[in-house]
Design a protein that fits this description.
single chain, about 90 residues, alpha+beta, about 30% strand, globular
């Protein structure tokens, strides 16, 4: 029997955390979703994040990955936009 959805925990940083006002989200996604789908969903919900689309890096389970990396149920995702400050 195949899964109808997977659940991932998304750690939010910088602009993403500012938009959502929480440090993490738990999302359900279709099976075989790429990590970039998480970014795209957040941008759909908060269009002001669009400016960060092309410069956001992805991490899954503490490893940097490309946007086409397929997520598995229970993965921890981080979206890392450019940050500055001191």
């Amino acid at each position: 029997m195949s899964q109808s959805a997977i659940t991932v925990t998304v750690k939010l940083f910088a602009a993403y955390q500012e938009a959502y006002q929480v440090p993490e989200l738990v999302l359900e996604l279709p099976p075989e979703s790429p990590v970039a789908a998480v970014r795209d969903r957040l941008i759909t919900e908060h269009p002001e994040l669009k400016q960060w689309s092309d410069v956001t890096r992805f991490g899954v389970n503490l490893t940097f990955v490309e946007g086409d990396t397929i997520l598995k149920d229970g993965d921890e995702v981080v979206l890392i936009p450019p940050v500055s400050g001191g």
